[in-house]
Amino acid sequence: MKGLRLALLAPLFLLACDDPKKPDPGATPSATASVAVTAPPPASTTPPPPPKKKEWKCTDGAVADFMGDTAMEADVRLKLSKPKGVIANAELAGVKSLNLTRAPVDDLNPCILPKFTGLHDLLIGKGDLEDLTPVGNMSSLLSLRCTDNHVTDLKPLSKLIHLDRLDLGHTQVRDLEPIRPLTDLTELTLDNTQITEVTALSGLSKLEKLIIANTMVKDLSPLKTLKNLKLLDISGTPSTDYSMIPSPHMKVKM
Questions:
Q1: What percent of the chain has pLDDT over 90?
Q2: Largest CA distance in the chain
Q3: CA-CA distance, 222 to 232, in Å (whole number)?
Q4: Please, are residues 180 and 159 in contact by the beta-carbon 8 Å criterion?
Q5: What mean pLDDT do residues 160-168 have?
Q6: DSSP assignment, residue 233?
Q7: How far, in Å, CA of 125 to CA of 147, rounded?
Q8: Between 156 and which of 116, 132, 216, 218 could a Cys-Cys bridge form, CB atoms 3.0 to 4.6 Å apart?
Q9: Cβ contact 213:192 at 8 Å
């Protein structure tokens, strides 16, 4: 009798084991369950537009208009010993030096710079300056310092044939061909620029000081003709052949 009862219960036990479990509505989803992830939008490949250049509206009045350039006006007043009052355009011709290093220089005023017809020394401070065109007709210049900016094109300087000293250090200058005519130069500074060769300098026979440190200039042979060189700085360059250095008595910084 007992054996018969076990035989009847066995099929029921098997059916119970095969019955699938119902999901627990309160159960926490598995950590390995897939999660829908929203892909970020693709990054824009369009470069930002270049900054808009400043537009200048020049006037022909008798009074000097500095157009909000307080640093220039302050230096002019200092040079003219005129702390107050109106400054006439005619007075600008008497200014011999102009220091624009006391504030960032992002552009040069093409309206007022040409009025400095007697200017000998011009110092331009660091900034985002790219265009030297307003300096191009300042033929009285003897010294120009224009450093720590984005200048690349030296064509505006090609007419400044009376320049004696030129400093273009820490700029983006690559091509020196435009300054080939500046044969009165005695000092030239081109450190930390993008220049790779100095062929255009071979005719600058009056050069006494040349700084090309931290550039990619390797060939010094164009300098062989510069018999008046007294100081040559080639530190930080890939130059290795020093046999082309003009004079063994010249001071060379390597």
A1: 70
A2: 135
A3: 13
A4: no
A5: 98
A6: E
A7: 7
A8: 132
A9: yes
- 253: amino acid identity, one letter: K
Domains, the chain, ranges and CATH?
A: 70-253 (3.80.10.10)
Query: Which residue is it, tokens 């290093």?
Result: 101
- As a whole number of angstroms, the distance between CA 80 and CA 95 comes to 7
Q: What is the mean pLDDT of residues 163-183?
A: 98
pLDDT tens digits, one per residue of 205-219: 999 999 999 999 999
How far out from the chain centre does Cα 151 lie? 7
Q: By the 8 A CB rule, do 242 and 221 touch?
A: no
> 211 pairs with which residues across the strands?
189, 233
Assign residue 215 a region: left if phi > 0, alpha if psi is -120 to 50, beta otherwise? Answer: beta
| pLDDT tens, position by position, 45-69 | 666 655 566 777 888 889 999 999 9
Is 154 buried (19+), middle (13-18) or exposed (0-12) by CB count in 10 A?
buried
185 near 168, Cβ under 8 Å? no
Q: What is the pTM of this model?
A: 0.78
